[in-house]
Amino acid sequence: MAVPGVGLLTRLHLCAQRSTRVQRPILRLLSCPGTVAEDLRRDEQPSGSVETGFEDKIPRKRFSEMQNERREQAQRTVLIRCPEKISENKFLKYLSQHGPINNHFFYESFGLYAVVEFCRKESVGSLQNGTRTPSMAMETAIPFRSRFLSLKLKNQTSEQSCIQSSDQLPPSNRKLCELLCYAESIDDQLNTLLKEFQLTEENTKLRYLTCSLIEDIAAAYFPDCVVRPFGSSVNTFGKLGCDLDMFLDLDETRNLSTHKTSGNFLTEFQVKNVPSERIATQKILSVIGECLDHFGPGCVGVQKILNARCPLVRFSHQASGFQCDLTTNNRIALTSSELLYIYGTLDSRVRALVFGIRCWARAHSLTSSIPGAWITNFSLTMMVIFFLQRRSPPILPTLDSLKTLADAEDKCIIEGNNCTFVRDLNRIKPSGNTETLELLLKEFFEYFGNFAFNKNSINIRQGREQNKPDSSPLYIQNPFETALNISKNVSQSQLQKFVDLAQESAWVLQQKDTDRLSVSNNQPWGLAAILLPTVPNRRSFTKKKRKRSANESVRNLLESLKSNRTANFTETNEKRTVSTQT
Ligand code: GTP
Ligand code: MG
């Protein structure tokens, strides 16, 4: 446990630690009425707006629709490194020579950057045609034509800085503590946390743009490839600062020939063969990794992690500030993201609860950005979904019931695994459950503080506990590869820490009446209190727990003495028997 008093500020910092330095943009929208872009902009929602849920009554987009629209937007967009002093009006006027701009924003990440989305894709080509490769005095530039540009001022002194970038970092720990303490209820606290930590519209745009820029590089080898974001960047559970998981989709390249057959002949590409899919994946990622390393503007620290269970290329995209993991042949993970997107969009309580639990877990070092024996955010999300399926009436449907709602178009088999479920959110019946977030948070901790992890597994496909098929401390069934456990890595001690903290947090939340009085004393209460490593009133829980454990220890000792006596007795008898026999 951390030092009391360092508390929330230190711990919450962990939540925000990997936050991007993206700043709140000055979103001056120079819209182009009547364009597809304008239509998209009108009805687009941030991948995580607080207002998602049944309450919306707005038809909600399918995951694939949302991905395609954002990808198309990103293809019309450029990333520009700007001089520190720049006039926004002149900047826009200069770029508008190439065509109307749909929207733009500025952010800071070790320098000032602009994301500029044109109304038409041709404008990007026109801008690129008027762009040159820099000439350097000491070094040599490798010529590479991309959509990541630098804007230079011809006359350094003539510009005044007119860019008013407002901050888009998550709030400071102090600010967050204040926001949570002055919230009116725990529901309010959870919604505040969600609002402050969720990906902003601009951050989401930047994620799609980064994928699009990487796609351009990979297209040098595979012209029909698509680089799709997956994981928390798109599944509605992304926190500012989360990594950017990318999937290099080569299906178009693979399937092209099947559409072009006619007559009695069949043409196939002459290709090189390798013994397995895994080796093919490793070879593809190896060349893309090299390419990113040598030619990828802004791609630094490229690591090829090809012997992992799921081979990947990891790198930092300096300009966006994203830590990127590029994989291929990982379609099931994309499908998992789609499933989580559905769960996160169905009911507004889901995301608020997941964010609260993720922040809580991070604050207590239950999760970590370093791989190890910890619980992952993905596993935590599965636990929340499972818990919400177990409510009465259920807040979320089981995966099996989503499968029964599927139509022919939703049918999907990946590597022999049935990944069929309904993709159209509007066909899923709303839940009649009206429980508050406060109750759900408390009950989540109660539920998992007392869960029989030693014998039961968690299974969102059926939404019920099942006998564990093996002795892993924590068993969460992979929803699609049903023979796998997504939390196989979690050690008994990490699980125990989770259980202990869940019990403790349930207890702290039960003290709400006295706790709320502490608002006047400036003491954290409710959600803020459980994000703390230790608060004074929690000592009584620890004392009680210690007393309970002392009682338990005495009881265990007595039991073990009793059983030892029996064992000794049996042993003695056996010895006797043995000795008699001998
Ligand atoms: P963050 O911690 O915010 O990055 O959450 P995340 O959901 O993006 O997790 P992560 O980056 O670790 O993994 C990206 C995606 O890969 C997840 O959303 C899942 O779809 C998938 N994934 C991660 N871990 C596992 C696992 O153990 N098993 C399976 N089948 N898929 C996983
Ligand atoms: Mg991720």
UniProtKB/TrEMBL annotation:
Residues 561-582 are annotated as: Disordered. Residues 572-582 have a biased composition (Basic and acidic residues). Its cofactor is Mn(2+); Mg(2+). Gene3D superfamilies: 1.10.1410.10, Beta Polymerase, domain 2. Residues 63-131 form the RL domain. Residues 561-571 have a biased composition (Polar residues). Residues 186-344 form the Poly(A) RNA polymerase mitochondrial-like central palm domain. InterPro entries: MTPAP-like_central, NT_sf, PAP_assoc, RL. One of its GO terms (molecular function) is transferase activity. Keywords: Magnesium, Metal-binding, Transferase. The keyword Magnesium applies. The keyword Transferase applies. One of its GO terms (biological process) is RNA 3'-end processing. Residues 440-482 form the PAP-associated domain. PANTHER family: POLY A POLYMERASE CID PAP -RELATED (PTHR12271), POLY(A) RNA POLYMERASE, MITOCHONDRIAL (PTHR12271:SF133). This is Poly(A) RNA polymerase, mitochondrial.
